[in-house]
Amino acid sequence: MSAHAPVAPEIRQAYARYTLTDSIRNSKVACILVMILMPMGYVLDYFVYHEHLAYFFKLRLCTSALAALVFVALRQKGWSERQYRILCAGWYVVPAVFICLMIASTEGLASTYYAGLNLVILAVSSVIQATLIESLVAVTIIVSLYLGACLLGPSTFDSRMFVNNGYFIFCTGAIVVTGNFFYNRLRFLEFSLRHELNENRRKLEESNRKLVELDELKSRFFANISHKLRTPLTLLLAPLETLQQRRAHVLDEPTRQLLGTMHANGMRLLKLINDLLDLVRLESGVMQIRREPVAIGEFIRGLASAARQVADDKRLRLETATASDVGTVMVDRDKLEKIILNLQFNALKFTPAGGRVEVRAARAGEQLVITVADTGVGIAETNLPFVFDRFWQADGSSRRKYQGVGIGLALVKELTEAQGGDVSVASQLNAGAIFTVRLPYLPAAAVPVVDKDEDAPAESSTGSRGGGTVSNDEWLANLYRRAELFPALMPVAEALRPVESGRKGDRPQVLVADDEPDMLRFLKSQLKDQYQVLEAVDGQQAIEKAAQFLPDIILLDMMMPEKDGLQACRELRQRTTTQGIPIILLTARADEETKLAALSAGANDFLAKPFSTTELHVRIKNLVASFHFQHQLARQNQALETAIEQLKETETALVQTEKLASLGRFSAGIIHEINNPLNFAVTGLFTLRKKGKLLAADQQADFTEVLSDVEEGLDRVRVIVSDLRSFSHHENERRDAVKAADAVTSALRFLSHELKDRVRIEQVVGADQIIWANKNKLIQVLVNLLQNSLDALKAKAFPAGERATIWIEGRVENGQSLLCVRDNGAGIAPEAMDKIFDPFFTTKDVGEGMGLGLSICHRIVQEFGGHIAVKSEPGKYSEFTLTFPVEPPPTTA
Predict the structure, then answer these.
(1) What is the pTM (predicted TM-score) of this model?
(2) Which of 775, 714, 707 is nearest to 747 (CA)?
(3) Which helix (H) or strand (E) holds 52?
(4) What is the pLDDT of residue 730?
């Protein structure tokens, strides 16, 4: 406990009681010292103040008498705590008062008896170990009494003597107060630690007492419940064996299999109950050792023959060997049989196919040594100290591969030690294990055989005696022995699962996953009439079969090897193909935590063992029906979504067709309306060209150039109107070898009045680059793209140092002729990228465009076997790339 840690109030109260008791005891000692030492001061009076000898002697006797009264008062019971504190102060107040009277009666301030007050102050520290408050009070009282004695004394005031005496009294008091402070601090810390230690010891003793009681209750409970369970279990096994032996010929195969499953699991349960009962008997000391002569060699060979079928089924070699000097030994046959059978079956369980199990017996001095060795999976070195602990398992998880409850080896240890022996194990992981049992070697000839009492338990036998009627006791003994010999291992043939194919017929498919073959077989027998049953023996196999067959429902056991039910459930829910399949978890635990864990893992339902088959059928039926309904609903939704998409596409096509039809009608009208003004303009140009000859010679060149530009513009209008008609009425036109540089130059000349002094043009187009297309339409495409770039440049405010620029690049690569038009304008918004080539789509304001430019470009480029691509980043750039084939089309060639 830290000195600064908070202290519980109960500890402070206990410490106060403790210090009071200690203070009373020490105050009694101080009173005795006062009663003895004060009269002894008579000798000092004789030499120092002989003239006051008689008076001082009376004062000293009076002091001793008063100290005696304080002593008697402290011995009385019933005083309150406050009264005790006052009485405890009496022992130092009384001598201090009388010493001060002596000082006042003699020389006052100059009296040498002030040293007696120092002794009283030191006694406050060394005799009663007063607290800080008590020390301060005592020092204050004594100093006050001394000052009073100095004032009442006969001598005149001597400052030197006052400072001298006062200094020593004050220093003594300061030392006492400081020492008591630290002493009591350590004392309180020690008391707190001791108090906590005592409290913890008390709690530990109480807990230990409760544990002992609980252990006794547990032992009694196991003994009682084992006895109670054996009776109904025996009454179940007896009719089962009767049905199997006498009625087997009238029962069908499924019924016989069901009876066999019930009998096998009943025998397993009986063996488990017998093992628990043996452990309880050993713990309580009730089990007795009954030694009898046993031929060890024949005994071991007989036990090995009982397990031979299990070894052959697993393709294991089971070997026995007995040294020639062993012979017949006095042992408890029943207990030795349990020891060897447990070790033998344990070795068979943990040894894979093709391995070897050896049971050997030898004599080592005065000990009988029996070893059971195997070539199995072995035991990790860290687990060796716990092998013989009760209910301990190397793999305690819900995914363990080997089943068991951890009783067998614990029973081996208890039975061996009960006979005065010991058992040990030596093993390495993946290198097998060797169990060694050492028992006292008692030769049969050295110990007389005692006949058994009539009330002794009947010796177990495997059949009736002489073919007569078997008594009830003999049948029970025989049953218990067969239960002991009953292996906890399932035959390999029963653990193998049949090869399964896909769906057959219209029956729903159910996947059952359980590592217990009996439970798997039982569930299949209950479901196979209504469902097609798939089987899995662990969680990993359940996941794989679910992904392969996509069953209508999955039944998962909670505890399985490889992956337990919870992990398998989570992985099935994470997979797209299996996430919608209903899952029911089966478990022997029915607590709320397990239920919540199952539902959190994604299970649709939860069944605790034992469960009703009727309930199982109902839950499976409901979940399968719901699953099928969801499937039908999903298919209908998918069909509806497909129909809606088709309707949208049809609607889009109809709208597009109507747009084109409207455009055709519009084009037909506008061509008629525009052609007349164009004819007038062309006629006017012809007239102006004639008039231009009348101008001065230095003006004719400029005039002719202007007329040429106007004429080219009018031709451009005529071409655009024609292109509009061709857009709405698609016609194949002749392709020519157009020089890319000439097309770019013409397009730039059309826009020269807008580009001049406002936009920088960077052009890199090879003079020999050829594009197979119609020149006018190619120029139209380039003009549209350049016009778009100009509009994008106008919409952007350029920072200082950056200028509006259009890059035009032409190149030939990978058998394609490319033209790129790039600008550093406002760019295109991402949401418009998929729509910019749609007819009538535009991002410009009303009156600034019809939304046909890029659509016409796209149509023209496709018409000449090319394609147009666009890249853009808003606020930075836009780039259109025209790609045309380099080779001429076959018709032109």
Answers:
(1) 0.43
(2) 775
(3) none
(4) 52
**Rounded Cα distance, 331 and 337, in Å:** 10
pLDDT tier at 397, thresholds 50, 70, 90 = very low
- β-pairing verdict for 367-374 and 356-364: antiparallel
- Is-contact 476 461, C-beta < 8 A? no
H or E segment to which residue 474 belongs = helix 472-485
**Residue 860: both structure tokens together:** 């023209």
The DSSP bridge partners found for residue 128 are: none
Asked if residue 167 has pLDDT above 80, the reply is yes
Residues 207 and 214 sit within 8 Å (Cβ to Cβ): no
Predicted local distance difference test score (pLDDT) of residue 820: 92
Q: Report the phi/psi class of residue 489: left, alpha or beta, with left for phi > 0 and alpha for psi in -120 to 50.
A: beta
CA distance 556 to 260: 24
Task: Check: CB of residue 582 under 8 Å from CB of residue 627.
Answer: yes
Residues 6+ apart with CB under 8 A from 416: 339, 422, 423, 437, 438, 439
pLDDT given for residue 728 in this prediction:
54
Q: What is the pLDDT of residue 144?
A: 87
DSSP-derived pairing of the beta strands 583-587 and 553-557:
parallel
Close Cβ partners of 239 (under 8 Å, ≥ 6 residues apart): none
Torsions phi, psi of 58, nearest 5? -65, -40
Q: Where are the beta strands (DSSP E) in 345-453?
A: 356-364, 367-374, 422-427, 433-440
Nearest to 102 by CA among 111, 110, 92: 111
Q: At what angle do helices 81-105 and 53-74 cross, to 10 degrees?
A: 180
Q: What single-letter amino acid sits at 683?
A: T
pLDDT 10s digits, 804-822: 888 999 988 888 888 899 9
Residue type, position 799, single letter: P
Give the closest residue to 344 by CA, choosing from 329, 360, 331, 332: 360
The tokens describing 700, both together, are 């004719």
382: pLDDT strictly greater than 80: no
Which of helix, strand or coil describes residue 524? helix
SS3 492: helix
pLDDT at 502: 63
Question: Predicted confidence band at 316 (pLDDT cuts at 50, 70, 90)?
Answer: confident
- State yes or no: pLDDT of 453 exceeds 60: no
| 3-state SS assignment for residue 523 | helix
Q: Which two tokens stand for residue 739?
A: 């020089």
Chain centroid to Cα 520, Å, comes to: 30
| Average pLDDT rounded to a whole number, residues 249-270 | 70
CA distances to 144, 482, 579, 632, 646 from 639, in Å: 109, 65, 22, 11, 11
- What is the DSSP secondary structure assignment for residue 443, as one 8-state letter? B
